[in-house]
Amino acid sequence: MALAVLGIPPGCSDNRAKDTGTKPVDETIAKTNWELVALDGAQVPTTKPAAATISFGRDGSIGGTAACNEGGSPMRWHQGRFAISPNVNTVPLPIFTAMRCLDDASSELGNRFWNRMMTAQTWVRDGRTLKIGFKDGRTASLRLLPPPIAVDAQLPAGDRLALVGSGSGEGISDRQLIAMFGQALAQGAPLTEAKAVCLGFQGAQDNGMRDAPAFVIKLLAPSIGLPVLPASECSMDTVPRNAATREQAVLYTVKVEHLGDAITFMATAVFGNLGVKGTQYRLRSLRGGGFAAEPTGLTVLS
């Protein structure tokens, strides 16, 4: 895969101090992933893939994406500040893969964000919002993304679950189910107003939505940053809500549409009556026991 060095803005390379070796210590940002929502005071359009994402390693490293490309920056984070890694002796440039992305505007925004990151000085986290401050006083705002679901996560005893309706002997493996809910979460991060996440499942022979399996809820709960509830504990008016507290929520669902050598399913995020995003996928087995969810081209937006 080819790599590209993003352009360096004029006058941005002379005013940065080397990292003094301070170790990253703030657990509120370590191992988190964020999506760019505003840059230099302007909102960033929502696209798939996002214009830019940024991830923070536990060791202070910084990686992420610029549209469809992946890469990282020699900047490092610690104690609310950014600095250049001490082992960088030349002008530090973000390095990314060099694929041509379909959305040119999204690519331009992503590249601009990562070029701005070369002058990043401070970061402040406020719940699910992250603000990055640059040397010229301008800022970027980002929202917290759900963590990816590890396919090798601890699973309950027994490999298969009967999840396709009463009277059917067919089943779906735990890892298949994890891969499917991972795609549901990928439909969009919870809005700032959301105080909970609800998970629902509909098997191929089910007449209606049921609760997501308890082990999926247990697996996601520690890392998603919000209470995770079964669908039966949520209600729907104009938006999904925690039925007990009436606080706003987001409903993520998986609906199995076809069983066979390749499972076809719809992964959906419901933010409100006029805020729904769904994508149909075909689940393909990989060598080593994993699964790849491939979009079929069918999407639902409202």
TrEMBL record:
Q: Which Gene3D superfamilies is this protein grouped with? A: 2.40.128.270
Superkingdom as given in the UniProt entry: Bacteria
Pfam (any one): META
Residue ranges constituting the DUF306 domain according to the UniProt record: 27-139
**Protein name according to UniProt:** DUF306 domain-containing protein
Which species does the entry assign this protein to? Sphingomonas turrisvirgatae
